[in-house]
């Protein structure tokens, strides 16, 4: 794969995708398109079971969208950029494999939106977060107004969005925006530990879990329960289900093959 702003390393069923636009890794249309490309390729790679998404350097995960690109866009150009960003975020959110954001520094605006599209988020204790868009006369356009409130509730979401103030890693943990805070030097190792643990679990069952949770969050209870029942049936029909139950009876570690 030939990418200008992303790198991808695969080891032990785990892919580490790094956004590399130093010093603060801003998102532009090319990065969004490359994210779609890499996630499409990883989706088809049966050797990859978990994906880690991070930023290069120690200063930023992603410090927002590329303001230099946005400043020169007219309405049509901005709509086109918004279309490709939405495609990238949706591709990440709906990937069949778990996606872990390893947030190594600033996650501002589009960077925080990118993290919110991931399944799990681990951050450095030095990470900082904000939705500063209102101070620029705009609002988040990559799903921030929608995904944030599903995690923190509408009242807190409005506070963070309306004021646009920076908040630290501990506040992000308190609000459940991140799942874990670790020292910066332990960030990637911790993300890999989580990823390797997930990679040992049955891939189809994880995929069905993700479908049930993601789709169910936008549905009423009865519809959600129907989605869960369907996902349960799909997981139950797999060879991995047979292996899991057999291993339990035989008191050994199961070996899952993703079928």
Automatic annotation (TrEMBL):
<dbReference type="InterPro" id="IPR014748">
    <property type="entry name" value="Enoyl-CoA_hydra_C"/>
</dbReference>
<dbReference type="InterPro" id="IPR029045">
    <property type="entry name" value="ClpP/crotonase-like_dom_sf"/>
</dbReference>
<protein>
    <submittedName>
        <fullName>Enoyl-CoA hydratase</fullName>
    </submittedName>
</protein>
<dbReference type="InterPro" id="IPR001753">
    <property type="entry name" value="Enoyl-CoA_hydra/iso"/>
</dbReference>
<dbReference type="InterPro" id="IPR018376">
    <property type="entry name" value="Enoyl-CoA_hyd/isom_CS"/>
</dbReference>
<comment type="similarity">
    <text>Belongs to the enoyl-CoA hydratase/isomerase family.</text>
</comment>
<dbReference type="Pfam" id="PF00378">
    <property type="entry name" value="ECH_1"/>
</dbReference>
<dbReference type="GO" id="GO:0006635">
    <property type="term" value="P:fatty acid beta-oxidation"/>
</dbReference>
<dbReference type="GO" id="GO:0016836">
    <property type="term" value="F:hydro-lyase activity"/>
</dbReference>
<keyword id="KW-0456">Lyase</keyword>
């Amino acid at each position: 794969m030939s990418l200008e702003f992303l790198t991808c390393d695969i080891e032990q069923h785990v892919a580490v995708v790094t956004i590399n636009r130093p010093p603060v890794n801003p998102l532009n249309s090319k990065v969004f398109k490359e994210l779609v490309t890499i996630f499409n390729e990883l989706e088809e790679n049966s050797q990859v079971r978990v994906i880690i998404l991070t930023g290069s350097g120690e200063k930023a995960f992603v410090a927002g969208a590329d303001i230099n690109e946005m400043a020169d866009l007219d309405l049509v150009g901005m709509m086109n950029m918004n279309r490709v960003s939405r495609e990238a975020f949706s591709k990440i959110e709906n990937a069949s494999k778990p996606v872990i954001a390893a947030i190594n520094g600033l996650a501002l605006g589009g960077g925080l939106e990118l993290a919110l599209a991931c399944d799990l988020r681990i951050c450095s204790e030095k990470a900082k977060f904000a939705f500063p868009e209102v101070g620029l006369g705009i609002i988040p356009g990559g799903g921030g107004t929608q995904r944030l409130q599903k995690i923190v509730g509408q009242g807190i979401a409005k506070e963070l969005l309306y004021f646009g103030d920076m908040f630290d890693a501990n506040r992000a943990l308190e609000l459940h925006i991140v799942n874990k805070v670790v020292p910066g030097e332990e960030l990637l190792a911790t993300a890999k530990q989580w990823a390797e643990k997930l990679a040992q679990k049955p891939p189809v069952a994880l995929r069905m879990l993700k479908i049930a949770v993601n789709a169910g969050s936008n549905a009423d209870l009865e519809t959600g329960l129907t989605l869960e029942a369907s996902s349960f049936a799909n997981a139950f029909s797999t060879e991995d289900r047979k292996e899991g139950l057999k291993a339990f009876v035989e008191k050994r570690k199961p070996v899952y093959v993703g079928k």
